[in-house]
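Structure tokens please, single chain.
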Amino acid sequence: MSKGRDDIRRLIRTIPGFPKPGVQFRDITTLLLDRDGFAAAVEGLSAGLEEKPDLIAGIEARGFVFAAALAHQLGTGLLLIRKQGKLPGATIAEEYALEYGTDQLAMHIDACAPGASVHVVDDLIATGGSALAAARLVQRAGARLTGLSFVIDLPDLGGADLLRGQGYSVHTLVEFEGD
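Here you go.
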């Protein structure tokens, strides 16, 4: 049975007040539990690619789930973009803004060859800080970024528009108004 975007949206659970009051947390675990829904999400991400990249890059942690499945489906390699201090080898890092402070994402220096084509995947785009850091990491490594894909877009937070405004190709499957 094939599922569409409305089915994917319905399979994403909203948890009010998590991790703090006023936040509407979009929980993908319920989507992942549904075999057909998960498959439809991966297929939707695949359909949004403008070209088959050499590597799919996943942003820690929930982005790993979709990136790994997409890389397997496409027959590409998987590049992990992790929080600073989580990778054992030599890394490059990019800082990004949080609500109160900053954090960093990192990747191994030798994770992708210069000139390789890389597509970045995450479960959700909110303000765009971590996605922009991931895009910059890929480009600093000398790779060609083919675009960024997300299962969920929170358009009120402006992340997808921020990325598009900086010239990046952005693909999303479903939107949830509000944060």
